[in-house]
Design a protein that fits this description.
alpha/beta; Tetrahydropterin Synthase, Chain A; six-stranded mixed β-sheet; 3 helices; elongated
Length: 147
């Protein structure tokens, strides 16, 4: 049976700081991220199944990405947990400072998102690729075939 790819787009607003970077992104700044999530699988062939003809219900994909990515990262300040800024968290009342164990670049965020989504997909569906737009003209891509 044919393999089919499904893609759904999501948006979220997030700030980050690239501590130690040698450019303007060393300052706290934010982006309007646009995430494209593509999964691959074989459409259900069982005519008695209410999902007959579907690789995956778009609503199910939406719930997974909303829970694992959008609800988690929207309107947060993402910082490396080793950051001086994070160590000042008790003194700086930022309720949505989100620590991660990596430099929160677009590239590293994409790797993290791939892990989060992959763990939640049904066993018959695989994550094919992700595209994360950090700005209107700049994005990073992750492909399962490369990893």
């Amino acid at each position: 049976m044919a393999k089919i790819r499904l893609t759904k787009e999501f948006t979220f607003e997030m700030a980050h700081v690239l501590e130690g970077y040698d450019g303007p992104c060393e300052n706290i700044h934010g982006h309007s991220y646009r995430l494209e999530v593509t999964v691959i699988g074989t459409p259900v062939a069982d005519r008695a199944n209410p999902k007959c003809g579907m690789v995956m219900d778009f609503g199910q994909l939406k719930r997974i990405v909303k829970c694992e990515v959008v609800d988690r990262f929207d309107h947060v300040l993402m910082v490396n947990s080793d950051s001086k800024l994070f160590r000042l968290k008790e003194e700086i009342p930022l309720a949505k400072m989100f620590p991660v164990d990596f430099q929160p670049t677009c590239e590293n965020l994409l790797i993290h998102i791939a892990q989060l989504i992959s763990e939640q997909l049904p066993k018959e569906v695989s994550l094919h690729h992700l595209k994360l737009h950090e700005t209107a003209t700049s994005y990073a891509e992750w492909f399962a075939s490369d990893n």
